[in-house]
Structure formats: C-alpha cells, structure tokens
Amino acid sequence: MKVIGVHMDRCTGCKTCELYCGAERGSEGKTLLKAVQENPSPQPRVRVEGNHNVSFPLQCRHCSQAPCLDACLTGALVRDEKSGLVILRENLCIGCWTCTAFCPYGVIAPSPERGIAVKCDRCLYMEKPVCVDACPTKALEVIDLSEVEALLREKRRKTAQEMANSAGEGLRLLDVGI
Q: Which residues, 6 or more positions from 20, have their beta carbon under 8 angstroms from its beta carbon?
C-alpha cells in the first residue's frame, strides 16, 4: 500500500500543501485565486502543525483498524476495496462528526459550513496527491509501506549495532582502569 511519507527535516511549515489541498479539494474554482475569493473558504484535508523549529503536515493515515469506520453512524466512511483507503462518501455524511471524536490522529475535521466531515482521501482520483505535488521542499513523498518498513528495520539494525559498539568500548575502558 502507498502512503504519504514526510521528510521532517525538509518541512518548513510554509503550508503550501494546505493551500493547494484546499483549492483542489475544497474549492469550486479549483485554483488558488478562485479559492481565496470563495465564501466559505475552502477547507484543506491536510493540516500543518508545529512551530518555528519543527513542523509537519498531518493527514489521514487510513488506519488498518480505523476507529472512524466503526464510529460512522451512516456508513459514509468506507474502506475502498481497490486502494485500501478510508473514503468519505459526502452524500451520506450527516455532519454528526462522531468520526472526528474517534480519529486517533485528529485529522478528520468538521466543516460546519458544508454540514459534513472532511478528510484526506489521498487524492484518489488523481495521479499524485496535490499536497505532494505542491510541496516546494519535497518534504512530502508517496512511498510504498513495505519500503518504509524496510527503512525502519535497517535503522533499528544500525542503532542496535551502534549501541553494541558503544557498550563494547565502555567495557574496554574499564579494562584499562579508566
């Protein structure tokens, strides 16, 4: 399964991903210029959190055991069989926002103006998510989940090796009386 990976060392908190997401996914005009003129303002499906030192974009994780799916009273939230993504069928959403309370990451947002919840669907209908495409620093990247797991395994292996090497050096220092 593909996921949106975040290179936290590259994210500057510029919120370009939010702007383009709002324009593409929440706007009637589908452009930044038209989106800023709309009332109510378009709501992005990605949110940038953090401060001057560390910032990061948050969007739906499409959890394998998604509590929002069970919480949805009308069946508006479903798992797309082909992609495995958790999708909101807006025509079935009644705006009760129960899903927002059950989302462990706080990435499903109420849209009182529209009377529905909004969440990332990873731009399922597009070739590439608009947030990934728009990011000026390439902090966002679509990657395969198996690649992430392989990277984490390698990182854990290196960390364990470094810890073992450090422990061994400490023992050698004790041997020479330091």
A: 32, 130, 131, 133, 134
The half-sphere exposure of 173 on its side-chain side, counting CA atoms within 13 A, is: 7
- What are the residues whose beta carbons fall under 8 Å from the beta carbon of 35, sequence distance 6 or more? 19, 22, 23, 26, 27, 29, 41, 42
67-115 residue pLDDT tens: 999 999 999 999 999 999 999 999 999 999 999 999 999 999 999 999 9
| pLDDT computed for residue 168 by the predictor | 62
Query: How many of the other CB atoms lie within 10 Å of CB of 45?
Result: 26
Name the DSSP class of 81: T
The 3-state DSSP class for residue 150 equals helix
Reading the block at residue 106, the tokens are 């706080």
- Are 58 and 47 in contact by the 8 Å Cβ rule? The answer is yes
Handedness of CA 64, 83, 56, 72 (dihedral sign): negative
Contacts 24+ apart (CB under 8 A), 68-75: 68/99, 68/102, 68/103, 68/108, 68/119, 70/102, 71/98, 71/99, 71/101, 71/102, 72/98, 72/99, 73/98
Largest CA distance in the chain: 74
